[in-house]
Amino acid sequence: xxxxxxxxxxxxxxRFVLNEQSKYPESRGDFTILLSHIVLGCKFVCSAVNKAGxxxxxxxxxxxxxxxxxxxxxxxxxxxxxxxxxxxxGRTSVLVSEEDEEATFVEPxxxxxxxxxxxxxxxxSNIDCGVSIGTIFGIYTLDHTDEPTTADxxxxxxEMVAAGYCMYGSSCMLVLSTGTGVHGFTLDPSLGExxxxxxxxxxxxxxxxxSVNEGNAQNWxxxxxxxxxxxxxxxxxxPAKSLRYVGSMVADVHRTLLYGGIFLYPADKxxxxxKLRVLYEVFPMSFLMEQAGGQAFTGKKRALDLVPEKIHExxxxxxxxxxxxxxxxxxxxxxx
Length: 336
Ligand code: AHG
Ligand code: MN
Ligand code: MN
Ligand code: MN
Hints:
Blueprint (H helix, E strand, L loop, with lengths): L1 H7 L4 H9 L8 H22 L8 E5 L5 E3 H16 L3 E6 L6 E2 L8 E9 L10 E9 L20 E7 L3 E6 L5 E6 L4 E6 L10 E3 L10 H11 L9 E2 L5 H11 L2 E4 L12 H14 L3 E3 L19 E4 L1 H14 L1
Parallel strand pairs: 3-5, 11-12, 11-13
Antiparallel strand pairs: 1-2, 3-4, 5-6, 6-7, 7-8, 8-9, 9-10, 13-15, 14-15
Helix pairs in contact: 2-3, 3-4, 5-8
Family: Belongs to the FBPase class 1 family.
InterPro entries: FBPase_C_dom, FBPase_class-1, FBPase_N, FBPtase, Fructose_bisphosphatase_AS
GO molecular function: fructose 1,6-bisphosphate 1-phosphatase activity; metal ion binding
């Protein structure tokens, strides 16, 4: 009775993670406690986003953040909520947020064994027009008991133990991987619980959608230009791909994960490292893509093998269906 199971045997995200963590004998529930605080932050932002228009949260907060972007009220609010939730979990030692210039080092009495990098509100240019936005996070473990430093988060993405995003769209969906596949949970507002709705998401090996900001085409390098040309005017008689670009990474990546295809934020003459930030955009989405059977490439190497030197470092990124990313890798290899 699948329907009954949904009603009487709820697979909430907390229960799901407890199951996952029970596979690790040494697990003492710390990760589950950390995740429950991330989930709290997502529920808060979901409710704030849904009320934004009414609660006059829309519009500029007047400050600018480290990225030099006009901070919108929801950016600031979301950042405060996540920092407070993560610190109060007592399970973190270092936090990196897009909205804070410096890393946050948790006071000794509240320190825990995890370091969290996050983008509290992704796609903020879309807040005022009601287009889907999201939160992105990645989790490292602290592997020492000395004073935490930024070295504890300036690690390659292949050392992340978990990553996920929450998309605030027509429904609120949290997509998570703890290294054993990718699983989607939908918020049931009547319960205030994220329920497992998309177990073990696998991205199609090939898709027919490409997702890029064509407005930057005049600044692209050769391989990206050639690849996009191929999507629009295929030489082998195959149908042209569709272009879908929301402008919120969470929405574009979520669609790519479920439908297949490729998402590109290439380098261009104006921004040689592209626009997306390594720690809290590129790494978590690359982690998820690989866990779902896809891949993620920077134009030079596997995205998760990047070793960031600065906490807000950027990188070009090509991620999505395995075969589609293979094609762009081949074009960059030719250029080598
Ligand atoms: P954020 O709102 O967290 O700063 O991120 C915005 C990013 C990402 O969401 C999206 O993929 C990209 O900006 C879109 O950039 P363009 O508008 O240059 O295409
Ligand atoms: Mn921003
Ligand atoms: Mn972002
Ligand atoms: Mn952001």
